[in-house]
Write a structure and sequence with these properties.
By secondary structure, the protein is an alpha/beta fold. Helix content is 38%, strand content 14%. The chain has helices at residues 131-139, 155-176, 183-200, 218-227, 244-259, 279-293, 313-317, 323-340, 365-374, 392-408, 424-437, 458-476, 479-489; strands at residues 3-5, 15-16, 39-42, 49-50, 78-80, 89-92, 95-98, 111-112, 115-121, 205-211, 232-237, 269-271, 303-309, 347-352, 379-384, 413-416.
């Protein structure tokens, strides 16, 4: 793993109302799948204050806040990256710090802080009527369907066409799991659990939920954060591994909102880009795997099958998406943790949920399941590794489609590890990650960088539109494209 040097100086910061002492209290909670409000707040009865806090590197462990150093100026100046061509940021201890030249003021007196935590997630249709507009929002995202610049004017029309044609099949999937996605309910439960975990550590915070493609949208959450006059914000994507199509897409939206708002641009923000290496997360995953292995008659003979959401190969090879590298390292760390517990099962990784005619990360989940069955594997434990909440890709794609395929291919004993959800050790680790990130928050600039300034030339735009439309028409209605498009919709 490459080690990238990080620059910038952190000012000594006093966070009024925050006490980063370690709490021996073990927070226990569970998801009840009941709807809760998008914004949940937590207020401690104590007005506590702390200063001179150095967070532990997120990439190494989930050390308790009590083990932190005594001076923010003593932060490690290293961060771990495999590739970083997606965005320009400074980072320290695994947390993004926006590089805009704006320093956090150093105060000689305690400043009363209103801390916010923004949980980012994908979102999902809550009813069958929501499916088509949800799909439109998904495919209208240029980070999901990456069109060449000449054809970007086709993004929304193409998204409309795909969403209308795919909606019937998608509705069948959502109908099979109860008529809608449970993702919002579960994420609301996780927000409430995180609020309570922070409260148990004497942290007063508001926790918000921002979905990328359905309600409550990220924009709605940001508006509420502004109305609540939050003074320090930690952004926590609920994706363990970073990808352009998940965390990257949400961060792009945040950048757009913040840089065009004078108030928000001055708000200190820390973004936890990925947290797949955290000790608490790794141990929580190992706990669930070990527990499910015990349900088999011969646990040592079970193949551990990690199934991750796929991304197009071009994201990794052309755009420098670190997702594949992070996924492989994450699985290595989980298996190493299992080995310390005497569990040394065979394991494999495959990628699911591919769509369209382009090449996605291999091997594919469906193909590997068939191959394992043909090779004589009789017991298999599926582990949805890139998901921390149950949704259609776990409840329908894995539990129904892949289970049926596995049993049909000769696998006799099937098991599936549940998503982390509100597992207490997982939520506690997220709370520690938030606490470690708080002193690293930096303000964002309202001014666009040179590379972000759009130079509009009406004549050039018209020429692109005219010839792009002709070329797009020819491509879309060619026999080869029609055949590829049918495969995309299947």
């Amino acid at each position: 793993m490459d080690v990238a040097s990080c620059s910038g100086v952190l000012c000594k910061t006093k966070l009024g109302g925050l006490n980063l002492r370690n709490s021996d209290h073990v927070f226990s909670t569970s998801c009840s799948y009941t709807r809760s409000s998008t914004s949940v707040s937590c207020h401690s009865s104590k007005n506590l204050q702390v200063d001179n806090v150095t967070p532990q590197p997120l990439a190494r462990s989930s050390s308790s806040p009590s083990s932190m150093g005594k001076d923010v100026l003593g932060l490690s100046k290293q961060c771990f990256h495999k590739r970083n061509t997606v965005e320009k940021t400074f980072c320290s201890a695994g947390v993004c710090i926006y590089d805009n030249g704006i320093a956090v003021e150093s105060h000689s007196h305690a400043v009363e802080e209103k801390v916010g935590v923004l949980l980012l997630n994908l979102g999902g249709p809550e009813t069958l009527n929501d499916v088509q507009p949800f799909l439109f929002n998904l495919f209208a995202d240029p980070d999901i369907i990456r069109l060449p610049s000449l054809f970007r004017f086709l993004q929304r029309p193409l998204a409309k066409l795909i969403s209308v044609l795919r909606a019937p099949k998608s509705k069948e999937g959502y109908a099979a799991i109860g008529g809608g996605s449970p993702l919002r309910k579960i994420t609301d439960e996780q927000a409430h659990a995180l609020k309570m975990a922070l409260e148990s550590k004497n942290i007063s915070a508001n926790v918000y939920v921002g979905m990328r493609y359905w309600y409550p949208f990220t924009e709605e959450a940001i508006h509420q954060i502004k109305r609540d006059r939050i003074t320090r914000l930690v952004v926590l994507p609920l994706y363990p591994q970073f990808s352009i199509s998940t965390t990257g897409s949400s961060i792009r939206v945040l950048n757009s909102i913040f840089r065009n708002d004078a108030h928000l641009s001055r708000l200190p923000v820390a973004v936890i880009k990925s947290w797949y290496q955290r000790e608490g997360y790794i141990k929580s995953m190992a706990d669930l795997i070990a527990k499910e292995l015990e349900t088999f008659s011969e646990p040592a003979e079970v193949m551990i099958f990690f199934s991750a959401h796929g991304v197009p190969v071009s994201y990794v090879e052309d755009a420098g998406d670190p997702y594949k590298d992070q996924m492989e390292e994450c699985i290595y760390l989980i298996m190493q943790e299992l080995k310390t517990r005497g569990i040394d099962n065979k394991h494999t990784l495959a990628y699911q949920s591919r769509v369209g005619p382009v090449q996605w990360l291999k091997p594919y989940t469906d193909e590997v399941l068939v191959e394992l069955g043909q090779n004589g594997v009789k017991s298999l434990l599926a582990v949805p590794i890139s998901f921390v909440s149950e949704h259609i890709e776990t409840l329908e794609e894995i539990d129904m489609e892949y289970k049926h395929l596995a049993l049909e291919s000769g696998i006799e004993n099937w098991g599936r590890v549940p998503a982390l959800g509100c597992t207490s050790s997982f939520i506690t680790d997220l709370a520690d990650a938030v606490i470690e990130a708080l002193p690293l928050a930096r303000a964002m600039s309202t001014s666009l960088s040179t590379s972000e300034v759009v130079d509009h030339d009406p004549v050039r735009d018209f020429i692109k539109l005219f010839f792009g439309s002709i070329l797009a028409f020819l491509l879309l209605f060619s026999p080869r494209m029609i055949s590829a498009f049918r495969n995309y919709l299947c």
